[in-house]
Write a structure and sequence with these properties.
The protein has helices spanning 3-22, 53-64, 86-98, 109-125, 140-155, 160-163, 181-189, 211-223, 246-256, 277-280, 294-298, 313-319, 349-383, 407-420, 447-464, and strands spanning 133-137, 171-176, 197-200, 202-203, 208-209, 227-234, 259-263, 289-292, 305-309, 389-395, 398-402, 426-430, 433-439. By secondary structure, the protein is an alpha/beta fold. A seven-stranded mixed beta sheet has the order 1-9-8-7-6-2-3, with helices on both faces. Strands 10-11-13-12 form a four-stranded antiparallel beta sheet, covered by helices on one side. A two-stranded antiparallel ribbon has the order 4-5. The chain is globular.
Length: 465
């Protein structure tokens, strides 16, 4: 393909993209294919000769699209969204075309400097105090792993990268039992071990870990000869939106000189609305590391995760590696490859720049406020259905419910709803029971889309009886 052909096909694909988004409501939200159905339509051997792009795109429509679950569908209420606004998509087209590897300042000065400004913009938007710096990670999983590695190094005097963990005893990290499984995986990868992740039961209206229980666990570990290394708190846990009480956690961390990380991957975006901060964000400035995902609720195309750092030095001391060929001469500059686990880095800041300028903070705030209000309205509509009960009350735009019956019935209802195709929900677990989760956050969803959940749930339930 030459660049003239590239131009023509790019225009065709862009037109296809616009029509795709405009027609999403006519598609089932979740893919309706059976396992293996897509692979069975693709040749086992790669082609030996070039194929025409028209044929490739036709196969894309005929083979691939039926097997896609539509994350941009306005009736996608499962998991958390991975939004892709039009300005963000356009920015990604430019990034893909330039195809820069932005690991160092000198490999793309504009990418590095824009990243610094975008982190500063979002620090202000979330109400964090001056002094926080940060970096754009690919996902909250990478940010959390970076923080856990920093906890490990700090607890071992920044020596375990060199000498390993053998013979050091147990390093202990503390969190709520409502944390995302990415925390467990970070503990595995860091070599700390699942048995040394101490989970404190969540309780109360926000399903928060009890600070007294946290402090007691730390003191018990010290008495047993273990080495406490850090605390991971959550604002907006994946399961039911659990939110820890941040202020007491920071006080405990200071008492025991522990590094702290806050996982606000989903709910952090809502903190651009000041009215939510008292309930969910008070004490946040005391954390050493904070992560939130603009690619979830804010509208930046996946992947784009911001890790804020109160002091970048411990993470740099943990991750920085600088062979001669990566050194930058001349004036002091920021090389973000030293802040993250991957050395290679995409130009993620551009989509944030396009997004924030296109909607402004007021436009983004309005969407989040709508989603929260509509989720609360929907919760009341489902509460009113005969025999249905709300399992967990709304935390921002997330709540859960149960239909009449046992856990098997809950799963049967979820499967029937998703097979129906009009909306997409997921199951979850809370206090030993299966629940059905509803999360409002797709960028283009409307009140009618949200309220349709109650209608679909009722109709599908009645068809099952």
């Amino acid at each position: 393909m030459d660049w003239d052909e590239f131009s023509g096909w790019s225009k065709q694909i862009t037109d296809w993209g616009a029509q795709y988004h405009k027609g999403l409501r006519d598609r089932p939200v979740r893919a309706q294919t059976a396992p293996g159905q897509i692979a069975a339509q693709i040749p086992v051997q790669p082609p030996q000769q070039p194929e025409d792009m028209a044929a490739i795109l036709q196969d894309f429509d005929d083979i691939i699209m039926p097997g896609m679950t539509h994350w941009q569908h306005p009736r996608f209420f499962a998991y958390f969204p991975a939004n892709a606004t039009p300005p963000s998509i356009l920015a990604e087209q430019l990034v893909n075309t330039i195809a820069a590897q932005c690991m160092l300042w000198q490999t793309s000065p504009a990418a590095t400097e824009l990243e610094g400004v975008m982190v500063a913009w979002l620090r202000q938007a979330l109400g964090l105090e001056d002094g926080f710096t940060g970096v754009i990670q690919d996902s909250a999983s990478s940010a959390t792993l970076s923080a856990v590695l920093t906890m490990r190094e700090r607890a071992t005097g920044f020596t375990s990268n060199r000498t390993g963990l053998a013979g050091r005893g147990a390093l202990r990290i503390y969190c709520s039992d409502q944390v995302h499984t990415s925390i467990d995986r970070a503990i595995w990868v860091a070599g700390i071990g699942q048995d040394n992740l101490v989970k404190i039961p969540g309780a109360g209206p926000h399903h928060a870990m009890d600070p007294a229980d946290l402090d007691a666990a730390i003191r018990a570990d010290i008495a047993a000869g273990h080495t406490p290394a850090g605390i991971i708190a959550i604002t907006g846990g994946t399961g039911v939106g659990a939110c820890d009480d941040l202020d007491p956690i920071i006080k405990i961390a200071k008492t025991h000189d522990l590094y702290t990380h806050l996982d606000a991957a989903w709910a952090g975006s809502a903190m651009i609305c000041p009215e939510f901060r008292d309930a969910y964000w008070h004490g946040v400035d005391g954390f050493d590391s904070i992560v939130f995902n603009p690619h979830k609720w804010l509208g930046a195309q996946f992947d784009c995760s911001i890790q804020f750092l109160r002091d970048a030095t411990p993470q740099l001391n943990t991750l920085k590696i600088e062979p001669e060929y990566l050194k930058t001469s001349g004036d002091a500059v920021t090389n973000y490859s030293e802040w993250t686990i991957p050395l290679g880095r995409r130009f993620r800041a551009l989509k944030l720049w396009f997004l924030i300028r296109s909607y402004g903070m007021t436009g983004l705030q309005e969407r989040i406020r709508n989603h929260v209000a509509w989720a609360q309205e929907l919760c009341e509509a489902i509460r009113a259905l005969p025999g249905f009960e709300i399992s967990t009350e709304p935390v921002l735009s997330l709540f859960s419910f149960r239909c009449p019956g046992d856990d098997q019935t809950q799963q049967k209802l979820v499967d029937a709803i998703n097979d129906d195709g009009r909306i997409y929900l997921t199951q979850g677990a809370f206090q030993g029971q299966k629940i059905i989760r509803v999360q409002v956050g797709q960028f283009d969803t409307t009140r009618d889309d949200v309220m349709s959940v109650a209608t679909v749930v009722q109709e599908v339930w009645e068809s099952m009886r």
